[in-house]
């Protein structure tokens, strides 16, 4: 940096247009007060991000950011899998480069953190077409490479990863609450705070996953589905009977068959519920049902299963309203196949009985027809007319009884074969549809079963790569966009809590589902069953088991899995904010900011924050303005985070300044100014306090040249004064 001192080179004509003399870098230019309320949030505390392949291309590029004056850097990797020149990955940096970075950071007293691939979006494995667990596993591998990089270059610190797990309607933001009683989109009074488009509240679309094939389907809240009115008992009957003839107590509302007998397994696809019959019209009662109806059906199912199992249901055993609605479409097909099964299967026993009788008759007539004592005339008289064919147009044919019976047997056998094949096919389709119903799940179940496990494994990997317990390597999961699960701070909190619980389980349980396969295993039908016995059979030796206590494991989980707060991402909820019509625009702006700050405080209060990204925007797009240049409550969020003792990395992501201003470092300087960091320089004496306008930036609004310049405008290190003293 070159200091040309206080004297002006001359008077700039533009100065006359500003009274008092002003500068675009100074808050006073816009009638704002200088803010020096948090001088400790300055040059040494606030660093900047360096996306490799974009802001820097190598170690020298990273070092240039250090020389500019950044006290901490977040090294970011845009690439995924194999690296490219403009989208680099951790594995493009080998031992020598990692050693160089570590030494540069130590010498210059710079703190380093890492941002894993931008291309990763959570651990559900969505690739734009399906939620494939293989894709989720690749994300874990990519996250591990970032953890290794951070451990090598800094021996501690945070590793950031985005948590955009799956799309869900903003008007229907539930956690693992199948009852739909806690909707994050509404305030305590029930007012809807967020909405993506006008009709969304009534037309929400829910995503569902087949957890075997990973394929995606959807249900619409505004779609009406045809569904039968199931037959139930109208009143209590203490002296009732079930379908097997056993005495039982029938309560009003219990499912019964057409004889009034209680169905002990009403959800059995072959022998379960029967629809009501309209005696007047002679038809089955079927009506168009809405989403709320299927919410009630889901509640009934969950209650029935809890009574059957005599325990609360686990998350994967519960049925959600959207799942029940999707199941109804499959149940229509099941009902159709069930009808064919009964129709074609009903005569098979009688047909087989007739075949047996005909075989006996054939045997009798065959002996009679071949009796040697019969004269040819008598034998001929045994013949009978073959039943008329072709509409009676062809003359009848005379045949022996054995021949006619043989043809009848053949016809019956073909009929039995047809009925048997049709019954077999329809029964198979019913069972296949039932299996499809059981594997049609809400994405949050995939996240809780598979994704959370991968986050936990990442936390364990960070633990294993930690050398100093006081400087742990930490997986810092970041809330990303409002449209995706994990974008709401409470959703992020849920992900972190569940991931920590699973990490504790992995560290303390001797066996876990899908552990280490130490011997060939027969993965038969019983092991494939969801939950219950199937889950127990899937348990294998736990490769992460350490024998540590649960208390110790909980402390480690809290240390190695945390959150990244982004002041820009939280502000993008602004575009979906639904104003309270009884309040002014200014009051609604204040309400939104209060919501944003309170949402972040929920994470800070529980000591979940492990990394902070500082960025700003105007509420629509993540354009990474410098803090203070948009309308995000950046300062308020930082105040509440620091209120709960946060003292870790704080990183500016100066994206916009790299293109709309003179470079990314200007974004960092604007942030230092925004938080009131003072400018220090040599000399000064009785001169007035130096300001950010004294540092070279844009010339817009400046009435004189700056006292400090750096970057491309600064002389090179080889440039010297006549006294051969180099400039700094």
Describe this structure in words.
- The protein is of the alpha/beta class.
- It folds into three domains: 37-186 and 443-509 and 545-677, Alpha-Beta Barrel (TIM Barrel), CATH 3.20.20; 225-339, no CATH class; 348-437.
- The chain is built from 18 helices and 23 strands.
- The strands form eight sheets. Strands 2-3-4-5-17-20-21-22 form an eight-stranded parallel beta barrel, surrounded by seven helices.
- The longest helix has 38 residues, at 401-438.
- The radius of gyration is 37 Å and the shape is elongated.
- The termini are close together.
Question: How many domains in all?
Answer: 3
Question: How many beta-strand runs?
Answer: 23
How many distinct helices? 18
| CATH architecture descriptor name of the largest domain | Alpha-Beta Barrel
Average pLDDT, all residues: 86
CATH topology of the largest domain: TIM Barrel
Termini Cα gap: 5 Å
